[in-house]
Amino acid sequence: MRILLRILLNGAGLWAACQLLPGLHWEGGWLYLLVAGFVIGLINVFVRPIVTFFSCPLLLLTLGLFYLVINGAMLWLADALLDKFRIDSFLWAMAGGLFLAVFNLLLKPLLESSDSKA
């Protein structure tokens, strides 16, 4: 249940990012948005920890600001994997990554409240 909720939130965050940021474009129906949320979730589970591990020196040097670049790179990778999702430039990918990070941070209490009920 928690995984499905996380996929749903990733899809909703991606939809909101595409609506608010002019450099992110999404075409397709709601089902494709859920597929995109699933792909972003897989990237965050499998690729992001490896990239974060190897970029530890840069994270320490920049006091964590390099996370913006990592978030942008993960969204850029999702752009490469998904046909109907397009990002204009890497700066827009970083802005979208920042947006999704804040979106997930604000909705984290929703995930925690669903965990305490189970």
What does this entry look like structurally?
- The protein has 118 residues and is mainly α.
- It has one domain.
- The chain has six helices and two strands; from the N terminus they run αβααααβα.
- The protein has helices at residues 2-20, 30-46, 48-54, 56-61, 66-81, 90-117, and strands at residues 24-26, 85-87.
- Helix 1 (2-20) crosses helix 2 (30-46), helix 1 runs antiparallel to helix 6 and helix 5 (66-81) packs across helix 6.
- The chain is globular and about 40 Å long.
Termini separation? 9 Å
The run of helices and strands is HEHHHHEH
Largest sheet, in brief, is: 2 strands, antiparallel
Provide the residue-averaged pLDDT.
Answer: 91
Q: What oligomeric state is this?
A: single chain
Structural domains: how many: 1
SSE class: mainly alpha
CA-based shape: globular
| Radius of gyration, whole Å | 14 Å
Number of beta-strand segments: 2
Low-confidence stretches: none
Count of helical stretches: 6
The percent range for strand residues is: 5-15%
Strand order of the largest sheet: 1-2
Helical content stands at over 70%
In short:
The chain is mainly α and 118 residues long. The chain is built from six helices and two strands, in the order αβααααβα.
Give the topology, please.
Layout: H1 2-20, E1 24-26, H2 30-46, H3 48-54, H4 56-61, H5 66-81, E2 85-87, H6 90-117
Antiparallel strand pairs: 1-2
Helix pairs in contact: 1-2, 1-6, 2-5, 5-6
